[in-house]
């Protein structure tokens, strides 16, 4: 893995982290396309650079996070299910799921169908919930967290699962999307911290640390642009195109690459 690979994967991470198309899944598929050897360091890299994208959320929503203690508590409540599952299944997830192209393709395909289905259901259902994070309850926050926990499976997409969960609870698309952004902060920081703790930074070479740094910085700036774009997009558009994209990319990768 070289610095160009690191920059490319940083772009992939920054673009896909907050779109409902699975950043982990795209990182795995991209690394396969680039013919990067599946090593423990690559798995660590794919987890760690997500913190660059998360830093973009902290930067853009810093005032909201600092001024809304009640919202911070709801984010922590929503984080609990993923924290428990991630803690107990960390080794299994990293050893058997991360890096598994078959799992990613199935998750992308099924997730695409679900995303389209939820949007069609959402379109027909009258919305009564207030369109603001202010009125999000602790109960709904926890349920959204349960949906997020499904995303420990690569390809499911953390943002897709949380947005789908929010919309099924009657929350409007924009609010569900912004809560997904904020919920990513403790989730991905915890995942990165746990992985780096197990990896031990002292065991990484100077070149590997440089590679991590490049991916981190690139993902930060690209994610900033992606977040701003998505917030504007969801105000007047649905997630159906993303559902179609998930289905198409899983089929194309299977037919053209794996076959």
Could you characterize what this model shows?
The protein has helices at 3-16, 23-33, 40-48, 50-60, 62-67, 69-97, 101-124, 138-149, 158-168, 173-199, 206-236, 240-258. It has one domain (3-258). By secondary structure, it is mostly helical. The mean pLDDT is 86. It is built from 12 helices and no strands. The radius of gyration is 17 Å and the shape is globular. The longest helix has 31 residues, at 206-236. It starts with a helix and ends with a helix. α4 packs across α10 and α7 runs parallel beside α9 (158-168).
Total count of helical runs of at least 4 residues: 12
Please give the number of β-strands. Answer: 0
| Element-by-element helix/strand order | HHHHHHHHHHHH
When the domains are counted, the total is: 1
- In whole angstroms, how far apart are the ends? 25 Å
Radius of gyration: 17 Å
Question: Please, what is the average pLDDT?
Answer: 86
Runs with pLDDT <50, length 5+? none
The proportion of residues in beta strands is under 5%
- What structural category arises from helix and sheet content? mainly alpha
Largest β-sheet summary = none
Helix content: over 70%
**Which overall shape is indicated by the principal axes computed on the Cα atoms?**
globular
Oligomer: single chain
